[in-house]
Structure formats: structure tokens, C-alpha cells
Write a structure and sequence with these properties.
The protein contains two helices and eight strands; from the N terminus they run H-E-E-E-E-E-E-H-E-E. By secondary structure, it is mainly β. The chain has one domain: Immunoglobulins (Immunoglobulin-like).
């Protein structure tokens, strides 16, 4: 009896208060370097994307696996988002650049958007995240 009650309470605790269905985003990161380190993935809204120090909606750090690394972000409200990511070779938590401002680590954006003299715009990187499981692929540059 108590097991059933506890299981029921656990299930209720995992349902969001709003009752709105949530989304999971699977990010397949391709062209991961064998240099190792971590792959750092961050999910942004249009409001937070252009701000340098803005907190992402959610993020994850996983060990880099040469070739392809899979990152899973869960419990996200469906909507319009963009992903920024990089392979943190030295695991210092920062995207390293040389003194010219050129990247020293591999990076990527949703839609495989390419930067020009700055990171690509939100419009170039945005995608719709729908309830349930969604998968995107990003190739490191």
C-alpha cells in the first residue's frame, strides 16, 4: 500500500505545476575534436541570446567524444530558441580566443549558422522546440 502511495506522490512531483507539456532537446554535436575536454551547450531565447553575460534557459556540460557527442536538455517549455556551444579543450569553462580575438576552441550554433565578424544573429540560429523529443545536429567549426 505504501509503495503505491509513494509511487503516486513521486509521479505527481514530476508533473509541472502548470500542467503544460514540456520538451526535450537532443543535440548531436558533430566534428568533435579528439583533443578532448568538454562540450558546453547553452539554450537561449531571443531576449537572452544577444547578451554576453545572460544566463541561458538551460545548459549542459558533457565530456567530449571524438566524432560525435550527444547532449540532452530536458524539461524545457516549448517555444523558439537558439543554441550556442563550444568544445572546451582545457576545461576552463571559458571560450578561449587569441589576442586577435580569433577562436582557439571549436564552436557551433543551431542551424549551423556561421559567424561573420561576430556571432550569428538569433534569427539565423532560431528553431522551434515542440513538446516531446526534438533533435538537432550542429557541426563544430
Amino acid at each position: 500500500m505504501y509503495r503505491g502511495l509513494l509511487a503516486g506522490l513521486f509521479l505527481l512531483a514530476t508533473i509541472p505545476a502548470s500542467g503544460a507539456p514540456l520538451a526535450t532537446l537532443i543535440v548531436k554535436v558533430e566534428k568533435v575534436s579528439p583533443r578532448g575536454g568538454d562540450v558546453r551547450v547553452a539554450l537561449y531565447t531571443s531576449a537572452s541570446y544577444p547578451l554576453d553575460n545572460a544566463d541561458p534557459v538551460t545548459d549542459a556540460v558533457v565530456p567530449a567524444k571524438p566524432g560525435e557527442t550527444i547532449v540532452i536538455l530536458s524539461g524545457i517549455k516549448p517555444g523558439e530558441y537558439a543554441v550556442k556551444l563550444f568544445q572546451d579543450f582545457n576545461r576552463n569553462g571559458r571560450f578561449d580566443m587569441n589576442w586577435f580575438g580569433l577562436p582557439l576552441e571549436k564552436y557551433g550554433f543551431s542551424n549551423d549558422a556561421r559567424p561573420t565578424f561576430s556571432e550569428p544573429s538569433f534569427d539565423a540560429t532560431k528553431f522551434d522546440l515542440r513538446q516531446g523529443t526534438n533533435t538537432i545536429t550542429i557541426h563544430l567549426q
